[in-house]
Inverse folding.
C-alpha cells in the first residue's frame, strides 16, 4: 500500500468554484435566450389584451365607463349615499357591484377618511350603511333595487 494522499488546497477549491460559476452562467444565457417570446406568442398575447374588458362591471354586467358614470350620477341625484370602508368585505362587494371604488366616489363616504361625518350621519354602528335623502335604507343592496329606489335604470 502506498501513502499517496491528495491534498486539497484553497487554490483547487477556487478553481472548481470558478468553473462551476462559468458553467451555471453559460446555462443561464442558453435558457434565457429560449424564454424570448416568438412572434406567434406575441400575437396571441396581443389578442388576449384585446379581449380584456375595458369597462366597468355593474350588477355583473360589463358597461362602458360613460354609462357607469351616468348611472352613479343618477344614483347621486336620487339621494343615495353609502357609508363604507375599504377594509370592510361587505362594503367591497357593494362597491364592486356598483362598478368599483374608482367610480362610486360621488355616492361613497369613506368612513376611515371621514370618521366625524360617518359618526354624525350614520344611524347604526356598522358599515356599509345606505341612505336615501338622509333616511336609512334597509332594503336590498342589489344594484337593481338601489336603482329603482333612486329612480334610475341599470346601464
Amino acid at each position: 500500500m502506498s501513502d499517496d494522499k491528495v491534498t486539497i488546497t484553497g487554490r483547487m477549491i477556487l478553481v472548481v468554484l470558478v468553473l462551476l460559476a462559468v458553467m451555471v452562467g453559460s446555462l443561464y444565457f442558453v435558457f434565457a435566450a429560449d424564454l424570448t417570446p416568438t412572434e406567434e406568442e406575441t400575437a396571441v398575447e396581443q389578442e388576449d389584451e384585446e379581449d380584456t374588458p375595458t369597462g366597468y362591471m355593474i350588477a355583473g354586467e360589463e358597461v362602458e365607463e360613460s354609462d357607469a358614470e351616468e348611472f352613479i350620477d343618477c344614483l347621486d341625484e336620487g339621494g343615495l349615499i353609502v357609508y363604507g370602508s375599504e377594509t370592510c368585505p361587505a362594503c367591497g362587494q357593494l362597491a364592486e357591484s356598483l362598478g368599483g371604488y374608482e367610480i362610486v366616489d360621488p355616492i361613497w363616504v369613506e368612513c376611515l377618511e371621514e370618521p366625524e361625518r360617518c359618526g354624525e350621519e350614520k344611524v347604526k354602528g356598522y358599515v356599509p350603511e345606505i341612505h336615501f335623502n338622509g333616511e336609512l335604507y334597509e332594503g336590498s343592496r342589489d344594484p337593481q333595487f338601489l336603482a329603482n329606489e333612486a329612480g334610475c335604470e341599470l346601464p
Q: What stands out?
A: The chain has two domains: 10-51, 56-150. Residues 10-51 form one domain.
